[in-house]
């Protein structure tokens, strides 16, 4: 199985590299797709990261990057996306061609509320933060839950709870969710 990870606006950080390395035990290949062509800009704040994301990439270009990685894959793929990356993954699996993608796992998508009419071609697991500033999480999760191939979970945690660069990072739950991700990817995309 090939795991393709779409990062959040923080990009390809050392933490994400470590997470990707932990997936090597269940995958034949792990690829990280990020908005900055592999660089780690080391942002001072969430606002700085978001401004850089909008300037350097943006949502449409990010979807293209994820779709390109999917198109280049030659074996079974599971997608994993965080925040902006989750929106890009959702768009990619709802597009005209999903290639060899078997499933996707999306964490705390910041833009999903604008894409609730998309129809994924593979199973998608959504893990939501307890609240988002731009939409009602319960309403969006319920709407997505009614779409075939979609499963939604609402956590009691804040947006960014798996990312040490985020002020909302929760080290106590990180390893639980890391194992949950591995279990889900293994279920949908066995090696």
Name its key features.
Rossmann fold, 191 residues, globular, six-stranded parallel β-sheet, alpha/beta, 6 helices
Q: Note poorly predicted spans.
A: none
Query: Total number of β-strand segments?
Result: 6
The rough form would be described as: globular
Number of spatially distinct domains:
1
CATH superfamily: Alpha/Beta hydrolase fold, catalytic domain
Briefly note the structural class of the backbone. alpha/beta
Largest sheet: 6 strands, parallel
CATH fold call: Rossmann fold
Query: Over all CA atoms, what is the radius of gyration?
Result: 15 Å
Write the CATH architecture name.
Answer: 3-Layer(aba) Sandwich
Give the rounded overall mean pLDDT.
Answer: 92
Task: Summarize the structure in words.
There is one protein chain. This protein has six helices and six strands. With about 190 residues, the protein is α/β, with parallel strands linked by helices. The protein has a single domain (about 1-190), classed as Alpha/Beta hydrolase fold, catalytic domain (Rossmann fold, 3-Layer(aba) Sandwich). Helix 3 (about 60-70) packs across helix 4. It is globular, with a radius of gyration of 15 Å. The protein starts with a strand and ends with a helix.
Question: How is the secondary structure organized here?
Answer:
Blueprint: E1 2-6, H1 14-22, E2 29-33, H2 46-56, H3 59-72, E3 77-82, H4 84-93, E4 101-107, E5 124-128, H5 137-145, E6 150-154, H6 171-188
Parallel strand pairs: 1-2, 1-3, 3-4, 4-5, 5-6
